Amino acid sequence: GENVEQHPSTLSVQEGDSAVIKCTYSDSASNYFPWYKQELGKGPQLIIDIRSNVGEKKDQRIAVTLNKTAKHFSLHITETQPEDSAVYFCAASEVGTGFQKLVFGTGTRLLVSP
Amino acid sequence: DVKVTQSSRYLVKRTGEKVFLECVQDMDHENMFWYRQDPGLGLRLIYFSYDVKMKEKGDIPEGYSVSREKKERFSLILESASTNQTSMYLCASQGGSMNTEAFFGQGTRLTVV
Fold this sequence. Notes:
The complex is a heterodimer. By secondary structure, chain A is mainly beta.
C-alpha cells in the first residue's frame, strides 16, 4: 500500500520568511496530492491540491510542486504570517479507479514568529 | 458550507467501557471515514464506509467497529475501551467518485482512564 513520509516534523520561521514542507510517496499509481491545514482545536482543512498531470500549482501565497519521477511533492508558503501557524498534513491517493482513500503524512508543525 | 459534526469535543471513559463516537454530515456524501490522530504518527485510518451499511477496515481497525445505518451518520465503537485508545478521533466525509475533498469534523479527544 501507499506510504507517505513528511519532513520536517517542526518548522519555525520569522514572519515574512518562506516555509517549505516536503513529502515523499511510494505508490507510483497515486495521482492526487492534497495539503491540509489544521489549526488549534479544529479539524484539518484542505488548502491546496495537485494532480499528477501538472507540476506546479499556486494560490496566492501558497504553492505546491510535484516531481512524479522522484515521487515527491512540496508545499511552499511565501511571506509567512502568524496566522499560518498550524499543523500541515500532506496526503496521497489514487483517484479515478473506484474508491479512493487518502494516506496522510505525519504532519509538520509550523510556527511563525512575529 | 459542508458541515461534519462530531457529537463530543471531549470524553473521559473508564477502561472496559463500550464507547460510541458519533459523526453526522449534512452534504449527502457517500464516503465517510474515522481517523485517529497521535503526535508523530499523523492521521491513521481506522475504518471507512462508501455506502450505507457498507464498511471497510482501514490501517488500524483492531479494537474498533463502526456502524452506518443512515447515509449521514457514521459511528465509531470502541467495544472495550483501553488506555492505548486515548487519542484524538477525527471523522471526515467525502463526496465520492472524482469529488476528492475530504471535510473533517472538529475532533473528539477521548481519554480512557
